[in-house]
Amino acid sequence: MAQEFSFDVVSKTDMQEVANAVQQAQKELAQRFDFKGSKSSIELTGEELVVASDDEGKLRSVIDILESKLVKRKVALKSLDYGKIEAAAMGTVRQRAKIVQGIESEKAKAIVKTLKDAKVKVQASIQSDQVRVVGRSKDDLQKAIALVRENDYGIPLQFTNYRG
Asked: CA angle at residue 106 from 5 to 141, to 5 degrees?
């Protein structure tokens, strides 16, 4: 039997790095003069961020601070799925951002379709929140990785469990 090679396409966000970035952003908010007396805050609860501030302009600034800290800690901004800006207590506004973990089925199907349509000699299968890609040649797997990287699925992707 010919040897088979495989890898998994996953979307994982390092929650420790997110927590560190949130802490750094909170520290910066506390120190910045333009936020003195402001009701701005960033909270991380489970796999959701809640950003609040006095008005939409300030909220945007708080999000910018948070995103700059996330980028420095190598957390992809694509891993944040922002909700609508909503009114909160005492005339403030808030916005929730879900932290994406795993590949949802629609995006997993799109990845499998990309590989099938390109006629690369690999089999891609969806396994819960990741995609397993199996092939007989390492070259085919390299082509598959390149193909997936070329396309934007709106989420950060990593390639793990490379077995050869």
From this structure: 15
